[in-house]
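A reminder from the course coordinator: this example appears on the midterm review sheet, so study it carefully.

Given structure:
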């Protein structure tokens, strides 16, 4: 598909047991005792991106970077953007401003010490910045971040700020700091998610292709797509005693995800968040 508009490809680098939906079932104290699959899965994603010759932004947990520094170095060595996903996947809604500052500062230092480059981007775990904790954006700027991709302008049971702008904006008066929301479609006075994750696995691929074409061609905007390394891993250990909703959301169509990602890479043009949204003409 000849589409000259570039979109941002992003990966939230976390392991299967770190997702917010598993918090009631897996204690953080167990994390190091569980089978780790994030390194293998992320390396596979890097191989796929190399095959399709695209660059992406990897929002990486400090916890993962500490344990797999060579993975971080490969991300940077191959020309991708390294960004922060916080230290240990703590939702911002569960933190005080002081705790949040400590978390994002710790993650930034770990990522920068390992990679040797400046980290300027941040994405909150589970898109947990919204109308009740916009103070987090001020703290991000104070700690040296230049953009966030943490507000999802949809109505959702776990996150969302549907009244937020749908495309990149500057939320702090007098500042160049940018919030870059995940892509949505606006239909009949409502925003619908189309930027990745479980929605991408739920809908037929043609729906996502149609949505990104509409964003690029009709709205003349660059979109953002996101996914997680565990989403291309149908062989991951299955958790027991999950609620039906958690089980459905996590395991739905994992076996189809890799082929859908490849179709997306083939059908559209991709680059990093920094290249698309922080260049001089943006």
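Designed residues:
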């Amino acid at each position: 598909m000849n589409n000259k508009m570039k979109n941002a490809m992003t990966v939230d680098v976390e392991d299967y047991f770190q997702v917010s939906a598993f918090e009631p079932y897996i204690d953080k104290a167990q994390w190091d005792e569980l089978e780790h699959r994030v390194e293998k899965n992320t390396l596979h994603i890097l191989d796929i991106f190399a095959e399709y010759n695209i660059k992406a932004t990897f929002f990486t947990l400090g916890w993962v970077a500490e344990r797999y520094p060579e993975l971080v170095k490969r991300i940077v060595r191959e020309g991708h953007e390294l960004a922060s996903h916080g230290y240990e996947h703590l939702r911002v809604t569960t933190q005080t401003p002081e705790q949040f500052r400590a978390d994002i500062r710790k993650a930034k230092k770990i990522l920068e010490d390992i990679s040797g480059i400046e980290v300027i981007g941040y994405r909150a775990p589970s898109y947990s910045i919204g109308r009740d904790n916009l103070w987090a954006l001020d703290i991000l700027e104070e700690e040296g971040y230049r953009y966030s991709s943490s507000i999802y302008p949809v109505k959702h049971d776990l996150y969302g700020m549907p009244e937020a702008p749908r495309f990149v904006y500057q939320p702090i008066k007098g500042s160049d700091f940018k919030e870059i929301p995940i892509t949505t479609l606006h239909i009949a006075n409502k925003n619908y998610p189309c930027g990745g994750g479980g929605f991408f696995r739920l809908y037929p691929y043609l729906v996502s292709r149609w949505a990104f074409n509409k964003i690029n061609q009709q709205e003349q905007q660059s979109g953002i797509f996101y996914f997680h390394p565990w989403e291309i891993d149908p062989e991951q250990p299955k958790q027991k005693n999950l609620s039906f909703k958690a089980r459905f959301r996590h395991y739905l169509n994992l076996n189809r995800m890799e082929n859908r990602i490849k179709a997306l890479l083939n059908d559209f043009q991709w680059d990093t968040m920094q290249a698309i949204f922080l260049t001089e003409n943006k």
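The chain has one domain: 6-277. Residues 80 and 185 are 27 Å apart (CA to CA).
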